[in-house]
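Report of the visiting student (M.T.), summer placement. My assignment was to run the structure pipeline on a short list of targets and document each run. The first record concerns MOB3C kinase.
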Amino acid sequence: AMALCLKQVFNKDKTFRPRKKFEPGTQRFELYKKAQASLKSGLDLRAVVQLPPGESINDWIAVHVVDFFNRINLIYGTMSEYCTEKSCPIMSGGLKYEYRWQDDSKYKKPTKLSAPQYMCMLMDWIEMLINNEDIFPTRIGVPFPKQFQQVCTKILTRLFRVFVHVYIHHFDSIINMGAEAHVNTCYKHFYYFIREFSLVDHRELEPLVRMPQGWGG
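After the run finished, the structure tokens were exported:
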């Protein structure tokens, strides 16, 4: 029943954005398949995120950043009807954490936005980056730029805030939709990945440190 329920939830096809796909035949597609296979094998998620022997760390990070973008996009897409200008006038994680938006174009200074506005800016911004060949090169033999991991840290830090907001402000909706197990697994996978490669500053993780399920570690 659980699988059926989830299928209904995630078949609404409410992704904010078209999914970014990996080109078959590329090394990154092979890596993506490898990552998906180990994910489905029921291995401990801590083991799943480890860099496979002989693989490039930047390729591994690139595959996961794109995959997490797709997954979190889908999770937020299913929540979005509950996350409105009215319900969430500020992008926050409880009373203690408020996230302001800043980019290099429209918002040069950190700016207060509603949660749905923030999410929209965030997904557009990430999509622009992962489709930029200078940052996420897809052609064989084209090297990653020097600032690649810095860019990924910024993307993953901001994606973590989506979990913070969804868990703290929309947890009831997750439960009511029967999506709790799916969201929890996605969160754990994401969490172990960013911890494995120290990609997000530990201070950013504080809002979800005291999760009721006592995860973390």
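The chain has one domain: 1-208. The chain is about 50% helix and 0% strand. I thank the supervising group for their guidance throughout the placement.
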